[in-house]
Write a structure and sequence with these properties.
The complex is a heterodimer of chains A (258) and B (212).
Chain A: H1 9-28, H2 34-60, H3 64-85, H4 92-117, H5 126-157, H6 159-167, H7 172-175, H8 177-197, H9 205-212, H10 217-246
Helix pairs in contact in A: 1-2, 3-4, 3-5, 4-5, 4-10, 5-8, 5-10, 8-10, 9-10
Chain B: E1 2-9, E2 13-20, E3 25-29, H1 36-43, E4 51-56, E5 59-60, H2 66-72, E6 73-76, H3 87-97, H4 105-114, H5 130-143, E7 148-152, H6 160-176, E8 180-184, H7 188-194, E9 197-202, E10 205-211
Parallel strand pairs in B: 3-8, 3-9, 6-7, 7-8
Antiparallel strand pairs in B: 1-2, 1-4, 4-5, 9-10
Helix pairs in contact in B: 3-5, 4-5
The chains are: A mainly alpha (258), B alpha/beta (212).
The structure holds adenosine-5'-triphosphate and magnesium ion.
């Protein structure tokens, strides 16, 4: 990691000019997305600058409590983001299940990763702990959002199918199996697809970042493989928890569809 | 028997007193929207009364396990669901759902005769007409041999002749096996011809209950 090339201010400015050119094109074509592009660029910049300083502080003050606090903040943000992102109505009970699945699923995966796979020392070393947590939590958040949409949608539009199965003596679990399986599939498929194209169609963001900042590609790939497996495991675990607990919220204690 | 005591279901049903005998054929009649389907759904606990209690064999439904009850009191809904697959898959799915032992092909063919469905077991359900699907759903319920059959308009998609054949066979089966049959029907002729007992619903209330 010796000859790392820092970006100069003018180079950053050039990157923004690129976006301004894009804005002109968008306006010329009459696509009404200027505001979104502008806001998301500014937001991303501010968030990343802030994160950069926070991370720098955390790295300089390596401390288990700070690391855990950071993870907690990420979890809260992720759960809140899921609630905002799904375009269906969520019951109070389902919201609780989403939060539990996210926290339990990602934490379990994270601990396995930190203690078994990387065997990090000290275990709370923020330079590793926080980015890995971010990858697992972020991807699980995306997966679970897809799963929530599909589950709630299926449970409402396929009401008739579920009721017909219940009338034939099926348990709620059996009656909603198809919908639950569908929700799981749609949540996990993007992760699986991205693994299939990885390295050939595109270089994943984390690896690109590492290589650009001076890490040898072989080292970067080693981490990338490990993290991809971690992401897959974490997404699968959170989504399984969510669908297995989630479908139950659509039934009452008399096994009736609510 | 089923015994209703001061039953209310939301604003839809309001039944002070109603008894439905076991081992007999009861027809439920009444105009569209009067609450017939809602009444059937109370009997197998797809819904629960908001007020009052329904007794089955003198046991309050509210204290019974819903799943076990639905395996004993099986309902054929007004628009039955046909699952993807073959005729055979659709006949067997009720037994699968209720965790009963599956039947052999001979038995299945016997059922097909009873519902007057002249199709091979391996036929894909995509090729079936609306009325054929309705009969298939009926056959699936017969195969389960529950104590009580709740049929919601089982012959609405059938022509008069087919209707007569199928209902007749079904009634025969039910009598022969000493089952309880509770059937919602629009057809005055069917209610007249086959019912031992008739319940008429109007605006969510029982306006008459009588044995023939
Ligand atoms: N879940 C529900 N919530 C609110 N209202 C309902 C519900 N289910 C049925 N209803 C209403 O209750 C009334 C009775 O419905 P029900 O389905 O029992 O009628 P029905 O006698 O079976 O009619 P049909 O002969 O047309 O099938 C109708 O006005 C219906 O709109
Ligand atoms: Mg009805």
């Amino acid at each position: 990691m010796d000859k790392v090339m820092d970006l100069q201010i003018w180079q950053m400015a050039a990157a923004y000019i690129f976006i301004i050119i894009l804005l002109f094109i968008v306006r010329l074509r009459g696509i009404a997305r200027e505001k979104e592009i502008l806001i998301s660029s500014v937001r991303m910049t501010l968030q990343l600058i802030l994160t950069g300083y926070v991370l720098m502080y955390l790295f300089d003050n390596s401390n288990p409590f700070l690391t855990i606090l950071m993870i907690a903040v990420m979890e809260v943000f992720a759960v809140y983001n899921i609630f905002k992102r799904v375009n269906v109505n969520l019951s109070q009970k389902l919201k609780k299940i989403i939060a539990i699945s996210m926290v339990v699923g990602t934490t379990a995966s994270l601990l396995y990763f930190i203690f078994v796979v990387i065997n990090l020392s000290p275990w709370y070393n923020p330079r590793y702990f926080i980015p890995i947590a971010g990858m697992l939590i972020g991807n699980s958040m995306t997966g679970i959002s897809l799963g929530v949409n599909r589950l709630v949608d299926g449970m409402t539009t396929q009401k008739h199918l579920i009721e017909s199965s219940l009338m034939l003596g099926a348990t709620p679990k059996v009656a909603s199996k198809e919908i639950v399986d569908n929700a799981f599939d749609s949540a996990i498929l993007p992760t699986i697809n991205s693994m299939v194209g990885m390295g050939i169609v595109f270089l994943p963001g984390m690896m690109t970042g590492q290589i650009l900042s001076g890490t040898s590609p072989v080292t970067a790939i080693g981490y990338q493989i490990a993290i991809m497996l971690g992401i897959l495991g974490s997404v699968a675990l959170t989504v399984i928890l969510f669908v297995q607990l989630g479908y139950k919220t659509f039934f009452n204690e008399q096994q009736q569809l609510i | 028997m089923f015994r209703f005591e001061d039953i209310k279901y939301k604003e839809i049903l309001d039944i002070k007193q109603l008894t439905i005998p076991l081992h007999q054929i009861t027809c439920i009649v009444g105009e569209s929207g009067s609450g017939k389907t809602t009444l059937l759904r109370l009997l197998n606990k797809m819904i629960s009364a908001t007020e009052g209690e329904i007794y089955y064999h003198n046991t309050p439904l509210s204290s019974m396990d819903s799943i076990a009850l639905r395996r004993e009191i099986v309902m054929l809904p007004q628009t039955p669901v046909i699952f993807t697959g073959t005729v055979k898959d659709n006949l067997l799915i009720g037994l699968k759902f209720s965790e009963k032992t599956l039947q052999n092909d001979e038995k299945l063919i016997e059922i097909l005769k009873m519902i007057d469905l002249n199709k091979p077991l391996e036929e894909s359900i995509e090729n079936l007409s609306g009325g054929e699907k309705q009969r298939l759903a009926l056959g699936r319920v017969v195969l389960m041999e529950p104590e009580v059959f709740l049929l919601d308009e089982p012959s609405s998609a059938l022509d008069e002749d087919t209707e007569k054949v199928v209902i007749e066979q079904f009634v025969h089966f039910s009598k022969q096996h000493n089952k309880t049959l509770i059937m919602v029907t629009h057809s005055k002729a069917i209610a007249q011809a086959y019912s031992d007992y008739q319940v008429e619903i109007k605006n969510g209330q029982v306006v008459s209950q009588k044995g023939e």
